[in-house]
Structure formats: C-alpha cells, structure tokens
Amino acid sequence: MSARTIRRFVLLMIALIVVTMVGSHFYEATFQRPPGDFEVQMGDNRLSEGKFDEALKEFDAALRASPDHRGALMGRSIVYIQTERYPEAIAELTYLINFLEGSLESDDTTGRATLAGAYANRGIVHDRTGRYQKALDDYVEALKTDAEAVDEPGVIHKILYADPNPSSVRKRAQYIYEQLQKPAGERLMRVPEIDAQQRMRKP
C-alpha cells in the first residue's frame, strides 16, 4: 500500500475511535445513569437559564422516574424560591430535610452537603419572609451539618463574579444574631443591596 493509503487508513481509524468513544460516553450519560438524573441535569440547565416553568417540569419528571430524588427535590424548591412561592418552598425543603435525616449514610458526603444546602435555603426563605429566628436556626444547622458546603465561596467564584467579599451563610447568621441581641426598635434586619447577593445552594 502507498503511504497515502496508509495515512488515510490511520486517519479513518482515529476518527472511528473518536466517534466510538463519544458515542459510548453519550450512551452512558443518557441511558445508563440512575433514574431521574438526566431530567435533573436538564432541570438545572433550565434553572440557570431562568426558565422556571420548564425547570419545574423536568424536576417533576425526575420525581416520577425516581420518587424522593434529592436533586429533583432541591431543584424544585429553588424554583419555588426564585418565583417567590415561599410556602411551597418551605414545604419542599422541610420534606427534603426530613427525608435526608432519615436516610443518610455516614459516608454519604454528597447527601450531607445536600442536607446542609436544604437548611441554608430554608433559612433564606425564612429570612426573606421576616422569620429571623427561624432563619438563624436553619443557618446554624446548615453550618453544623457541612460548613464547607454552604460557607463562603472559593477563589474561582470571586474571580468569575468579580466579588471579593461574597455573601455566606456564616456572615448572614452572625449578622442576624447580632441584630437580634439589640432592642427591637434598634434592629436593622434588611439591607436590600446586600440581601440580594444571597445565593441558593444546590450541591
């Protein structure tokens, strides 16, 4: 065979290997994942795009495929928070917290981070609706459960969002605690430009 034919054959084999690898990865990612995971990923994508109705449909589909899917429950609660459906958000997060506390294994680090995120997010809802003691209690539980998962974001977040001093559960908890020690007439519980920086957690 000529050098040109050999080169063509080698390139064809390389292309075939690449296509096989990509196809195999796509198949595993789409069809061999635990039930509900694909729908949760799609819901997360819609959530990041601000398409809350579409996100909710994906999370609902995930829960039909896998009841009590913790990623779907968390995702649905974030939709409720973002659309200010606070009673539904509280109910969803309370259910998720109770479910995780009753089912978590001691070595389930992702589950523990999710539990901490659920406490933190429920704290945000209480915070936004003026239930400051309940917010403080949930923030403290979030920090006790997994402080690393809910505390101040890392360096990459600060660079990406040009925010050298981002909000954190710890900072907000400390602020609420300090304000609650003051007489009621001297408390400043809301600072809109700072409160708007609170981030929902979705491990």
Give your account of this protein's structure.
With 203 residues, this protein is an all-alpha fold. It has a single domain (36-195), classed as Serine Threonine Protein Phosphatase 5, Tetratricopeptide repeat (Alpha Horseshoe). The protein contains ten helices and no strands. The protein has helices at 3-31, 37-48, 52-65, 70-82, 86-103, 109-128, 132-150, 155-160, 169-180, 192-195. Helix 4 (70-82) packs parallel to helix 6 and helix 6 runs antiparallel to helix 7. The protein is elongated and about 85 Å long. It starts with a helix and ends in an 8-residue tail after the last helix. The model is unreliable at 154-164 (pLDDT under 50).
Helix tally equals 10
Number of domains: 1
Which structural category do the helix and sheet elements fall into? mainly alpha
**Element order: H for helix, E for strand:** HHHHHHHHHH
Percentage of residues in strands: under 5%
CATH superfamily: Tetratricopeptide repeat domain
**Mean pLDDT across all amino acids:** 83
Radius of gyration: 22 Å
CATH topology name, in short, is Serine Threonine Protein Phosphatase 5, Tetratricopeptide repeat
Distance between the termini: 56 Å
Task: Give a count of the beta strands, DSSP E runs of length 2 or more.
Answer: 0
Q: Oligomeric state of the chains? A: single chain
Bulk shape: elongated
Which stretches are low in confidence, meaning pLDDT under 50 for 5 or more residues running? 154-164
Quickly give the CATH architecture. Alpha Horseshoe
Helix content: over 70%
**Main beta sheet:** none
- Top CATH class: Mainly Alpha
